[in-house]
Amino acid sequence: MFSRDYHEDPFIVIWELTRACELKCLHCRAEAQYRRHPQELTYEEGKKLIDDIHSMNNPMLVFTGGDPLMREDVFDIAKYAIDKGVRVSMTPSATPNVTKEAMEKAKEVGLSRWAFSLDGHNAEIHDHFRGTSGSFDLTMNAITYLHELEMPIQINTVISNYNVNHLEEMAQLIEQLDCVLWSVFFLVPTGRGQEKDMISPVQHEKVFQWLYELSTRVPFDIKTTAAQHYRRVVIQNKMREKFGARNGTEIRYEDALKNGNTGQIDGLGRAPKGVNDGNGFVFISHTGDVYPSGLLPIKAGNVRDTPLPVIYRESDLFKSLRNPDLYKGKCGVCEFKHVCGGSRSRAYAMTGDYLESEPYCVYIPKSLRKKKIIN
């Protein structure tokens, strides 16, 4: 049914163009620095990388950082990719680099979407989280101008103890800003991210249920990152709505999509089946190191030494991540393991083993539930 085999080709590629950034975000995966690294992939190396990415059934490409706008050649790189037919979006930091000229250039070269981070509904929360005063106001002003340019806007939000009690206000803001997609990240303790900043497993479940209810009443789409078990919550709700309490219904990832009856990729580029670290997803660092994701810091190779398709398809690390039968603990016996699989990044961060169970999931698989003893 699906045209893309994740064993061969990823659905999405994240390229960290640079780790340079002017912000000091509390959760920063990259532990970003103020200056660019001298060993960053060059423009010519970037073109070779884009050629390899395009050869893998032309997945989506996202430029991230650090701050991609810290590279003077960012729009040259973007144009090269877009001219090849690659769909490119970018997640720049809200700094003075986000000028009108930069936004106009993004529109000119054909970026498909501009993504900004908003981690609070007001300046107090957001600027504290981002470690820089004025970031909230700068983001609001940039969004206004992007609307004038008619460029689709995505908002990324990291759910943590800093903002979990203000999600309703966040959702109202996303709607007011007329964004096409709210991408909700659930904190993984890596980089500057701390375990103490994570919401609890029970809070994860409550937020998932709230997100599902929200998705039924808002005009924007919702996507989660490092929250594969949100798929399970969506599927459970859809199964209850469709079949009531009856058992024996098939668990399908299509049911986790808003328009899942068709199984097609929607206009926002959402995958028709779930991605996970190394399974439909690949991350390239600023120096060319290849990881299953930016949140799972186990290196599988470097594109300077080995082509990306070879690393993705043949690395033992990537192959193991694409085999749910290797999952341990309750993830290994869960009936949702082929459509959920839990966050491999969080499993690694909390246990040191990327194949262990998702440690922040409260669901008990059917095979582990105690049967009632009838006397």
Shape: globular
Overall residue-averaged pLDDT value: 87
Show unreliable segments: 258-269
| CA radius of gyration | 20 Å
CATH architecture: Alpha-Beta Barrel
Q: Could you state the CATH homologous superfamily?
A: Aldolase class I
Structure annotation, total helices: 12
Overall tally of structural domains: 1
Number of strands: 10
> Strand count, sense and closure of the main sheet?
10 strands, mixed
Quote the distance from N terminus to C terminus: 48 Å
State the order of secondary-structure elements, H for helix, E for strand: EHEHEHEHHEHEHEHEEEHHHH
Strand proportion, as a percent range, falls in 5-15%
CATH topology: TIM Barrel
Cofactor: [4Fe-4S] cluster
GO molecular function, one term: 4 iron, 4 sulfur cluster binding
Keywords: 4Fe-4S, Iron, Iron-sulfur, Metal-binding, S-adenosyl-L-methionine
Pfam families: Radical_SAM
Short structural description:
The relative contact order is 0.12. The protein is of the alpha/beta class and 375 residues long. Helix content is 32%, strand content 12%.
Explained architecture:
The chain has 375 residues and is an alpha/beta fold. It has a single domain (12-322), classed as TIM Barrel (Alpha-Beta Barrel), CATH 3.20.20. It is 32% helix and 12% strand. The chain contains 12 helices and 10 strands. The chain has helices at residues 43-55, 74-83, 100-109, 123-130, 135-148, 167-176, 201-215, 229-243, 308-314, 316-321, 329-333, 344-351; strands at residues 12-16, 60-64, 88-90, 113-117, 153-159, 181-186, 221-225, 281-284, 289-291, 301-302. It has a 10-stranded mixed β-sheet. β8 and β9 form a beta hairpin. The chain is globular, with a radius of gyration of 20 Å. The model is unreliable at 258-269 (pLDDT under 50).
